[in-house]
Amino acid sequence: MVADLWAEGGRQILQPPAEMRRESEELGFAEQVLEARGHRALEYRVGRSFDMFVTAGGFRFRRRGDVTASVT
């Protein structure tokens, strides 16, 4: 499904949670982003998220209104 929805070089970029940002800043990292790039990484990210939050925790995936897309 990822291949149907994403370009091969597609990527998902997230801002990490506040705790992770604080810890990264303490280590001297100026930019903190989480990135999954390409079909394999995106499939892994979605699969792990589903296992961790949907299957185990009863959450669900849903589309957010502020999704952005860009073509390079």
Low-pLDDT stretches are none
N-to-C order of helices and strands: HEHEH
| Broad structural category | alpha+beta
Average of pLDDT: 86
Shape: globular
Structural key phrases:
72 residues; two-stranded antiparallel ribbon
Task: Give an overview in words.
The chain is α+β, with helices and mostly antiparallel strands and 72 residues long. It has one domain (2-55). The protein contains 3 helices and 2 strands, in the order αβαβα. It has a two-stranded antiparallel ribbon. It is globular. The mean pLDDT is 86.
Secondary structure: elements and pairs:
Blueprint (H helix, E strand, L loop, with lengths): L1 H4 L5 E4 L3 H9 L7 E4 H18 L17
Antiparallel strand pairs: 1-2
Q: Summarize this, please?
A:
With 72 residues, the chain is of the alpha+beta class. The protein has one domain.
